[in-house]
Write a structure and sequence with these properties.
The complex is a heterodimer of chains A (114) and B (399). Chain A is mostly beta strands and 114 residues long. Chain A is built from one helix and seven strands. Chain B folds into two domains: 175 residues, FAD/NAD(P)-binding domain (3-Layer(bba) Sandwich), CATH 3.50.50; 156 residues, D-Amino Acid Oxidase, subunit A, domain 2 (D-Amino Acid Oxidase, Chain A, domain 2), CATH 3.30.9. The chains are: A mainly beta (114), B alpha+beta (399).
Chain lengths: 114, 399
């Protein structure tokens, strides 16, 4: 699974977002896609026969990374759908993807990238 | 020189279907396609099966509409042809014939619907007018602004990416030879025969065959193919513009159109909603004006306007994302009716192009094949004969 690059990178203070109800950290400037991948899954949508899809083009063309999001200030249940690769994260964003985050959320400790 | 009964020019729906029907009837067939099978309008249209008179046919006044209504006898045959097509081709075509609605929002729309209904009744097309209450019962997904609709129970859609390849497979299984990436370079009369010269686009290798008949099924470019036989056909390349929304749960079981605006809406089996209706796109420009051989470009304000009409009529579409817009090139004749038959000035030169060539394509192909093989058709196609344009070929000896 992907890991954030740690060495020689400075980031702003982390913010909390949630992916499928689990609180994880993200950094301003990251895309929703990057934050979801760092949270433990690359699966963001399904194709017409139900198979899993993840970000393919990473530039807004393929629409394979469409995820449901609730804005931090939106009432519960007021979801929108966005292309994860083009949408910046912000504090409090609630994201839903089709599968549970099975892996442990990515920590900032160096040396885990392999 | 190799001989065939028929050389078919064009590997779209009409050409591939004709190759199938002709070889099924025992004719030897060579099909030549300059690009790839199904690459142009046959595979790039939105797959509507519309049997009611479309907006483009009724918008130019009552006299013209009455003329266009003469297409309905062909539509009646097309309804039967489509109903049996998946069985005939042993293929899933994602065919849905769950009915179509043409929506009215104003008293003026209703007046147009009533006139259309009268024309359709004259030709026994099974359609009816439905009230606002009935529309809401049949199609609760529609906006409250709808006050009436014209309904045809046979309208629907099929997947254009499946139909022509299915015909092509069946044509080959029946013995037809299909050559892609091969451009026709000359069509010459030779006594009672035709010589067809062609060239492979990659290898530049040239070939020539003799045949009894040539079928011009070149769609948007049928006039250019006719010119190789020194004939004029009044058929013009025009751009198509289509939009597709993201997949979503089933909502729209009908083909939806509007009485007085450009609109088609349908939901395909994968769940995507296709939105079109004839909004213009633009051909790229070139030294001689516009280049109809290159892909047309979408016109952004037309995409926006098309989506606005669709989401006004089907409000739930406002929450669904546009994922792609694409264009294609099709052919329109000067009177909007198909060109279907033998060109009188060039015996043995047949044409099947123009009109609503997806809805009517399998029917064009079946009937023109009958004409070529038997010399007559099971259903009259006299009204669509290119002989109505004989005056433009009066000076154009093809010999």
């Amino acid at each position: 699974m992907s890991r954030r690059i740690i060495e020689n990178v400075s980031r702003p203070q982390p913010v909390d977002i949630s992916v499928n109800g689990e609180t994880v950290i993200a950094y301003e400037g990251e895309s929703v896609a990057a934050a979801v991948i760092a949270a433990g899954t690359i699966i963001m949508s399904r194709d017409s026969s139900g198979r899993y899809r993840g970000p393919f083009c990473n530039m807004g063309v393929c629409f394979d990374c469409m995820v449901d999001v609730e804005e931090p200030d939106a009432p519960p249940g007021a979801t929108g759908r966005v292309r994860a690769c083009l949408t910046p994260v912000r504090a409090g964003l609630r994201i839903r993807v089709p599968v549970p985050i099975s892996d442990k959320p990515i920590s900032d400790e160096p040396g885990q990238n392999g | 020189m190799k001989r065939f009964d028929v050389a078919v020019v064009g590997g779209g729906l009409v050409g591939c279907a004709a190759a199938y029907y002709l070889s099924k009837a025992g004719a030897t067939v060579l099909l030549l396609e300059q690009g790839d099978v199904n690459r142009e309008a046959s595979g790039r249209n939105a797959g509507s099966l519309h049997f009611q008179l479309e907006y483009r046919l009724i918008r130019y006044g009552e006299d013209q509409a009455a003329q266009f209504a003469q297409i309905i006898p062909l539509s009646l045959v097309a309804i039967d042809d489509w109903s049996g097509l998946e069985k005939e081709l042993q293929a899933d075509l994602e065919l849905e014939m769950g009915g179509g609605l043409i929506l009215a929002e104003t008293p003026a729309d209703v007046a147009i619907l009533e006139k259309r209904q009268a024309l359709q009744e004259r030709y026994n097309l099974p359609t009816k007018l439905v009230s606002a209450t009935e529309v809401r019962r049949m199609a609760p997904y529609l906006s409250d602004t709808v006050v009436a609709a014209g309904y045809c129970p046979h309208e629907g859609h099929a997947n254009p990416r499946l139909v022509t390849p299915a015909f092509a497979r069946m044509a080959q299984a029946s013995g037809a030879e299909l050559h892609g990436r091969t451009r026709v370079s000359a069509l010459l009369r030779d006594g009672s025969e035709w010589r067809v010269q062609f060239q492979s686009i990659e290898s530049r290798r040239v070939g020539e065959v003799a045949c009894r008949a040539v079928l011009n099924a070149a769609g948007a470019w049928a006039a250019e193919i006719a010119a190789m036989a020194h004939l004029h056909l009044p058929l013009f390349a025009v751009p198509l513009l289509m939009n597709v929304l993201e997949r979503s749960s089933p909502l729209i079981p009908h083909l939806v159109q509007h009485t007085s605006e450009r609109l088609t809406v349908k939901q395909v089996s994968a769940g995507n909603v296709l939105i079109g209706g004839g909004w213009p796109a633009r051909f790229p420009t070139c030294d001689t004006g516009m280049d109809t051989h290159r892909r047309p470009r979408p016109v952004l304000q037309n995409v926006v306007a098309n989506l606005a009409v669709a989401s006004r009529l089907v409000p739930a579409l406002r929450d669904r994302h546009l994922i792609r817009t694409w264009t294609g090139t099709t052919g329109v004749t000067s009177d909007q009716m198909p060109l279907l038959g033998e060109v009188p000035e060039a015996p043995g030169f047949y044409v099947a192009a123009g009109g609503a060539a997806f809805t009517h394509g399998p029917t064009y192909a079946r009937l023109i094949s009958e004409l070529i093989v038997d010399g007559r058709t099971s259903q009259s196609i006299e009204l669509y004969s290119p002989s109505r344009f004989s005056h433009v070929n009066n000076f154009m000896a093809s010999v």
